[in-house]
């Protein structure tokens, strides 16, 4: 990867690089497919490393959440929450190298609002096409505050074990029962010595319009299905007593 501008850790060069990169075009509605994504990590939360390739002195601005996306049509999108209100940051992209020349370039500004939220879409350098192994940095006042990465939770839940088999579903095969109603109870009646349940979906045809109309001695033609509780009447057609 060949970046066309170098990172010089002096304010004058930083201002010049920022001026070149901040003259950006208006992003289109469709930024293209997402080809890279990372979280924003506070530089202050990382372990101290004298050989770190993160540029600039390291700062400790607050951040609650944030992510960065590189989109295929040549744009970099970033969203952050919990920043210092109304603060101006600069978004940089850097190669994985400790060589200072041609290592980092400024992509554009990222400015937080009065609630500490920041949303920005900045252009990727047109000349920097092809494969890249890079990281991103957000700076304020020539100080690195956030770097692209990810946060691994301290307690990762174990992978799920084998799921127990589902209990067999009750058969839905219908059976027909014909005969004289011997008894009628609470939500149940018997025909030919067989107990039959009813529920709110049981349909009543013929001379009876509801379960309350059933009486012992009536002739019934019942269509029922087997459930875990017993035979359940789907349809009951009953005639008058003999």
Task: Give a description of the structure.
- With 242 residues, the chain is mainly beta.
- The protein folds into 2 domains: 11-149, Immunoglobulin-like, CATH 2.60.40; 174-241, OB fold (Dihydrolipoamide Acetyltransferase, E2P) (Beta Barrel).
- Helix content is 5%, strand content 42%.
- It contains 1 helix and 14 strands.
- The chain has one helix at 11-22; strands at 34-42, 65-71, 75-81, 88-95, 104-111, 118-123, 134-139, 144-149, 174-184, 188-191, 194-197, 203-206, 218-227, 230-241.
- The strands form 2 sheets. Strands 5-4-7-8-1-2-3-6 form an 8-stranded antiparallel beta sheet.
- A hairpin with a 2-residue loop joins strand 10 and strand 11 (194-197).
- The protein is rod-shaped and about 105 Å long.
- The N and C termini lie far apart (97 Å).
- The model is unreliable at 4-24 (pLDDT under 50).
Order of helices and strands: HEEEEEEEEEEEEEE
The DSSP helix count reads 1
Question: How much of the residues is beta strand, in percent?
Answer: 35-45%
What is the alpha-carbon Rg in Å?
37 Å
CA(first)-CA(last) distance = 97 Å
Structural class: mainly beta
| Uncertain runs | 4-24
How many distinct beta strands? 14
CATH-derived architecture of the largest domain: Sandwich
Compact summary:
The chain has 242 residues and is mainly beta.
Question: In terms of topology, how is this protein built?
Answer:
Blueprint: H1 11-22, E1 34-42, E2 65-71, E3 75-81, E4 88-95, E5 104-111, E6 118-123, E7 134-139, E8 144-149, E9 174-184, E10 188-191, E11 194-197, E12 203-206, E13 218-227, E14 230-241
Parallel strand pairs: 12-14
Antiparallel strand pairs: 1-2, 1-8, 2-3, 3-6, 4-5, 4-7, 7-8, 9-10, 9-13, 10-11, 13-14
């Amino acid at each position: 990867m060949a970046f066309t501008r170098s990172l010089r850790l002096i304010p004058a060069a930083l201002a010049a690089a920022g001026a070149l990169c901040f003259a950006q075009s208006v992003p289109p509605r469709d930024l293209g497919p997402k080809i890279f994504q990372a979280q924003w990590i506070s530089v202050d939360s990382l372990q101290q490393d004298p050989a770190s390739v993160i540029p600039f002195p390291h700062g400790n601005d607050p951040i609650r959440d944030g992510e960065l996306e590189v989109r295929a049509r040549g744009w970099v999108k970033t969203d952050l929450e919990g920043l210092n209100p109304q603060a101006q940051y600069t978004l940089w992209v850097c190669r994985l190298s400790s060589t200072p020349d041609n290592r980092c370039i400024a992509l554009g500004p990222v400015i937080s609002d009065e609630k500490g939220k920041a949303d920005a879409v900045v252009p990727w350098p047109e000349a920097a096409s092809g494969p890249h192994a890079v990281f991103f940095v957000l700076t304020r006042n020539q100080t690195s505050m956030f770097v692209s990465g990810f946060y691994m939770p301290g307690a990762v839940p174990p992978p799920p074990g084998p799921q127990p088999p589902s209990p067999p579903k009750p058969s839905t095969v219908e059976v027909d029962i014909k005969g004289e109603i011997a008894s009628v109870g609470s939500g149940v009646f018997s025909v030919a010595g067989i107990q039959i349940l009813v529920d709110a979906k049981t349909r009543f045809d013929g001379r009876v319009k509801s379960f309350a109309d059933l009486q012992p001695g009536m002739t019934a033609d019942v269509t029922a299905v087997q459930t875990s509780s017993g035979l359940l009447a789907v349809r009951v057609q009953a005639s008058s007593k003999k």
